[in-house]
Amino acid sequence: MSTAPAPGPAGSGTIDTQLSKGAIGLPAVVMQALTHVAPAAGAIVTVQFIAQLVGLTTPLAFLIAFLICLMLAASLTQLAKHLPSAGGYYTYVSRTVGPRAGFMTAWMYFLYDPIQGGMNLAFAGFFMNSVLGTLYGVSAPWLWPITLLVGTILITFLMYRGIQLSGKVLVILGMVEILIFVALALSGFVHSGSGGVSLSVFNPANKLPNGGSMFLAVVFSIFAFTGFEACVPLAEEARLPTRNIPRAIMISIIVGGLFYVFVSWGVISGWGSAGLSSFESSSANPIVLVAKQLWGGLAVLVLLAYLNSIFGACFAGNNAASRVFFGMGRSRALPEALGKVGGQARTPTNAITLQAFLTLAVGFGMSLLLGPANQLYLLATVITLGLSLVYIAGNVGVMSYYLRERRSELNWLLHIIFPVASSIAIVVVCYKSVVPLPAWPVNLAPFITAGWVVLGLIVVAVLSRSGRAAWLTRAGDVLATSDAGPAEGVAHHGTARPLPADPAGEAP
Fold first, then answer.
1. pLDDT tens-digit profile of 366-411?
2. Which residues have C-beta within 8 Å of that of residue 247, sequence separation ≥ 6?
3. Which residues 6+ apart lie within 8 Å of 436 measured at CB?
4. Closest by CA position to 479, among listed 284, 277, 158, 239
5. I want to staple 340 with a disulfide (CB 3.0 to 4.6 A). Which of 101, 105, 177, 508 is the partner?
6. Is the model's pLDDT at 490 over the cut of 80?
7. Is 229 exposed, middle or buried (0-12, 13-18, 19+ CB in 10 A)?
8. pLDDT interval class at 492 (50, 70, 90)
């Protein structure tokens, strides 16, 4: 069986990973992030809502949100290029701020990737039923449990087979959804409705719908881009991680940003920019209606792109979550069994199994309690609040790291201004998400998040005082790589800490 390394100096160690080191290249790492952004699903879910706030200038709202997220992504790359680890934000914040802060960051992360799979797969079945009704008059309310169960089984099977196969699948999924929606946008430009194709979509002086707000549209558009950070936990399995992870972060956010701006503009053009009020008020999803108008029977491709997008997002999210569980298990912040790998594919099998269980538990439990639509609205808001705190903690880590450990590399724009500006934008998102309190059940989100924070503080206190605090000395350990040298003023003690494999080659 695998053994864990002995505790060492806090935040100063390196490790040799047991995962399949160097198994995937830049294309797979990029698609891990981009499919988690889920651009096709994001467009279907958000474009109409943003249009209700800003009407014709919906592409402008996405463009502004993209620029804000670009700052956030640029800041994240500044940690990724020096601190490669499967622990992701857990390792980053542990190393740069402190292990207890790192644990709390991971604790808030648990309100994101570990629950998004069940939430999205259940809603995908609900949405599929809605689209089938719009296109063919078919009603199949039983689709959501089938989508959840089959999706979870397939994703888990592929994850067990190894990160190389996962990477290939994600590349295919990402390309399919992008191509279908880019084709739809191009069709909208070529066969535009009343008003034609107009650059006025980027004019902030355009009149907004009654009760609309560009400010609100921007802050709520920001989280259409979440997922670009999902490649970070694959650092121990990526080739040249200190180079390729930062590149993947930036490529995914740039492609995602251009996608949202281009697709929203194309869809609005296809509907007819002069008659957008009906787009905003449509009871059926307007993107599906645009596809039906432009493509006829081929409109079903939009449904396939949506399902493809959701599957890809859940796949990428479960990949990321299982690696974070693995990293925390390895440092013993979570049960040590989660830090084991098994099989020839060298995957974190116990962590993958845990994530599969969480996907089914959240999907079935919340959907049976609230329904697949209401559970999405509630959990999406909980995710927004929890992930906001994760992003802010990462920004604090960037500033702390470059002010204290890499002062000679300090760049005021990248390491101070960008983290501060994007953190302010995120605080606004949190505030606007809960003030005034939304309708039930979404009004439960701030209380669930606050309760989770309190519970996390209790867990940290118990772990720190129970005699099981070895993880405090190892939470900031990063992958030993030839292109990631020690930081200034930080002694790296000896060689990398080995994680020897089971001599018998058996899975744990």
1. 999 999 999 998 998 898 889 889 999 999 999 999 999 999 999 9
2. 26, 30
3. none
4. 239
5. 508
6. no
7. buried
8. very low
CA quadruple 125, 131, 135, 138: dihedral, nearest 10:
40
Distance CA 364, CA 338 (A): 24
- In this structure, what are the phi and psi dihedrals at residue 8, rounded to the nearest 5 degrees? -135, -165
Beta-carbon contacts of 452 under 8 Å, excluding residues fewer than 6 positions away, are 107, 108, 110, 111, 386
Look at residues 197, 214, 199 and name the one whose alpha carbon lies nearest to residue 55. Answer: 214
Residue 497: phi and psi, rounded to 5, are -75, 120
**Biggest distance spanned by C-alpha atoms of the chain:** 70
Partnered with residue 497 across adjacent β-strands are 15
Cα(180)–Cα(175) distance, integer angstroms = 9
> If you search the block for the tokens 């902030």, which residue do you land on?
204
Q: What is the second-level CATH architecture of the domain 14-479?
A: Up-down Bundle (1.20)
pTM: 0.85
Distance CA 168, CA 386 (A): 30
Alpha carbon distance 31, 26 (integer Å): 9
Domain residue spans in the chain? Answer: 14-479
3-state SS of the chain: helix, strand, coil percent to 5? 70, 0, 25
Residue whose token pair is 């199994």: 353
Dist. CA 446–CA 449, nearest whole Å: 5
Angle between helices 300-330 and 113-136 (to 10 degrees): 170
What would the pLDDT profile of 67-123 be if each residue is shown by its tens digit? Answer: 989 998 999 999 999 998 888 899 899 999 998 999 999 999 999 999 999 999 999
